[in-house]
Amino acid sequence: MDDLDGDDQQPKKKKQKKSSAADADNKALGEQSETKKLLPMMNVEMRDYQLKGVRWIIALYQNGLNGILADQMGLGKTVQTIGFLSHLRQKGILGPYLIIGPLSTTPNWVNEFKRFCPEFPVILYHGTKQDRAELRMKHMPTNGKIGADFPVVVTSFEIVMADRKFLQKYNWKYLVVDEGHRLKNFDCKLIRELKCIPTANKLLLTGTPLQNNLPELWSLLHFLLPDVFTSLSQFQSWFDFDGKKDDNGGDGGQVDDAEANKRVKVVEKLHGILQPFLLRRLKGDVETNLPRKKEIVLYAHMVETQRAFNDALVNKTIGEMLKNISGGGSAPIGATALNNMLMQLRKNCNHPDLISGGLDGSIMFPSAEELVEQCGKFKLMDRVLTRLRERGHKVLIFSQMTRMLDLIESFLEQRNDGGKVCRIDGSVQWQERKEQMDKFNSDPSYNVFLLSTRAGGLGINLTAADTVIIYDSDWNPHQDMQAMDRCHRIGQTKPVHVLRLATAHSVEGKMLRSANSKLALEKLVITKGNFRQEIGKEAEAASKKNKASGGGVSTDELIALLRGDVEDGEGSLAQSTDISDENLEMIMNRDDLIGKAPPNPPTGPGWEEVEDRSGMSILGNVNKE
User: Fold this and answer.
1) pLDDT, average across residues 315-337
2) Measuring CA to CA, how many Å separate 509 from each of 182, 301, 349?
3) Phi then psi for 449, rounded to 5 degrees?
4) What are phi and psi of 177, to 5 degrees?
5) Is the Cβ–Cβ distance between 524 and 558 less than 8 Å?
6) Is the confidence at residue 222, as pLDDT, over 70?
7) Res 522: pLDDT
8) Span of 182-196, 367-381, 585-599 with lowest mean pLDDT
9) Nearest to 318 by CA among 303, 308, 329
């Protein structure tokens, strides 16, 4: 009996063991992450909003629609796209897939594929004509069926235009355009060439879907859905709330209330049309753990040297002034450029040496003391950098002008305070860019990074920095916003200050007002459309939250935006005087961003805080939208 019982028990034990293993397997399956369930090829855990983005692109694909993934910069449009393409590959749709973007972002795409989805073959299609021919021969056969070894092809806008005749031999399953706002000019060569390349589906990625005006938005929509958005003039007739425009895209005249009310209905109509194929999330919507950011404009007054140059430019006596500086010789080098009055006024705001440098025969940069004495804005930057250095902050400094970066770099080298400087401008190759970024992010001895706004705004992650100084603003505010997002993005652990320097009572005031009007248009057309694609209970909850926080679009607010009511800031408290040392200490303290102190005053003599454009509150509950 005992033996029999033992025999009976043995199989039971085996059975129990098998059952336990099966339970463990089932448990493991049950505990599998949402990312692994949806995207088994991905080896990264994606955030909830990123998975929603992937599901949205999948829904577009299933409904035969092209779309615009317009998440704010730094929210992971790249990983969402890779996740979507991995989903198609998992389903047996092997491509071919073509990804195009600015040259500076292409190496990042290849690296992200290898990092997040290493099973997915990918190549960087670049190099000389011969290099590209070899890549096509080795990796991109044109005959036969697309196999599992056919890679995702990542290339730049320039190479697409150069090699269109080769690329049009393939029937691309998906075309992904990174920095899709490059297609905002519907008559550009790039769009003409892309139209010749057979493509079943298209996806545009852009953090700035509307930069200046509605025709640019139409250009993107026409590229995606040419059968729907066939005519620009028809589109403008549907959404004609531009009125008469000035050179910078602002209203040339005021709009009466009746007209503005009529336009409110037009905006609502536009939101309804865009809803199915545009997804836009802001940092404040999805990244509740991201440290807060505050943007502050600091005003500096011109010093005597600058006022002399400014008066000479306005009075058109600048030629004589430069001739005196150069010793009375023939017309100085670069004098022909003085025809562009606006540019010269901007240069004078940045530093008068940008106009007069080298005219006295010297090949050397001015001394550090001269650089500070000759320019109010430079003096202000020196005061700011001194305090940042004392507090151990890492700083990004952006300028439009490489010559200005030269002056700042020379100044920092002359000061020789022990910190090292990195630099990226248009002349720096992508391999060197990567080296510079790695140094800055990992080496504590590098504390300042100089960047030109256009070259340093794409494909660059510098979360080691927690301060951005915008030395001079761009006419296109989105360029400056991209610059800010080099450090205020996923991975940042500290609150971020953006310090925008401006010269009081100067042409820079006009630039800031123009930038505000462009951002108002985007806020009206894109942000206020609430293109977050929530469904069911999520949508209801989001709607209640939006109303509770004052985020809904009131008629009065829309009318104000449509009428283009923008304060000019002249004679304001912020431009009344240079900021005092006491106030500078106050506004550079970040305790209010981590809840350790009440908010600072939003404006004062020499400074004013800017409404946060990332969708995150900068002043707690004060002035929150």
Assistant:
1) 61
2) 28, 12, 11
3) -125, 120
4) -110, 110
5) yes
6) yes
7) 60
8) 182-196
9) 308
How far is it, in rounded angstroms, from Cα 499 to Cα 502?
10
**597 to each of 493, 586, 588, 590, how far by Cα in Å?**
19, 11, 13, 9
Residue type, 428: V
Question: Whose structure tokens read 């779309």?
Answer: 67
Nearest to 184 by CA among 558, 563, 522: 522
- Nearest in space to 208 (alpha carbons), one of 614, 617, 542: 614
Sign of the Cα torsion 37, 42, 48, 53 reads: negative
CB atoms within 10 A of CB 208: 22
Q: Taking 70 as the threshold, does the pLDDT of residue 600 lie above it?
A: yes
Q: What is the percentage of the chain residues whose pLDDT exceeds 90?
A: 17
Q: Give the number of other CB atoms < 10 A from CB of residue 287.
A: 22
According to DSSP, the residues that pair with 179 across neighbouring strands are none
Which residues, 6 or more positions from 530, have their beta carbon under 8 angstroms from its beta carbon?
271, 542, 546
443: Cα separation from own chain's centroid = 25
Instruction: Give me the pLDDT at residue 257, please.
Output: 63
Angle (nearest 5°) at CA 189 between 183 and 194: 70
Lowest mean pLDDT among 18-22, 256-260, 439-443: 18-22
| Beta bridge partners of residue 468, listed in sequence order | 396, 498
φ, ψ (nearest 5 deg) of residue 371: -60, -40
Kindly give the residue spans of alpha helices, DSSP state H, lying in 201-340.
214-224, 232-238, 257-274, 283-286, 304-314, 318-325
Per-residue pLDDT tens digits for 411-428: 998 887 667 899 888 787
Dihedral of CA 341/343/347/349: which sign? positive
To which residue do tokens 């991975």 refer?
A: 491
DSSP-assigned letters across all residues of 290-321: SPPEEEEEEEE---HHHHHHHHHHHTT-HHHH
Residue 334 dihedral angles phi and psi, to the nearest 5°? 85, 0
Instruction: List, in sequence order, every beta strand (DSSP E) within 425-553.
Output: 446-452, 467-470, 496-503
In Å, what is the CA distance from 428 to each residue of 98, 104, 411?
A: 26, 10, 21
In Å, what is the CA distance from 488 to each residue of 293, 396, 522?
7, 11, 20
User: What angle, 0 to 180 degrees and rounded to 10, lies between the N-to-C axes of helices 555-563 and 507-525?
Assistant: 140
CA torsion through residues 116, 68, 100, 477, sign = negative
For residue 198, the one-letter residue type is P
Environment class of 69 (CB within 10 Å of its CB; exposed 0-12, middle 13-18, buried 19+)? buried
pLDDT at 336 over 60: no
Give the pLDDT band (50/70/90) at residue 187: low
Q: pLDDT (tens digit, 9 = 90+) per residue, 23-63?
A: 444 444 446 788 888 888 888 888 888 999 999 999 989 88
- The model carries a pTM of 0.66
- State the maximum Cα–Cα separation within the chain, in Å, rounded to a whole number: 123
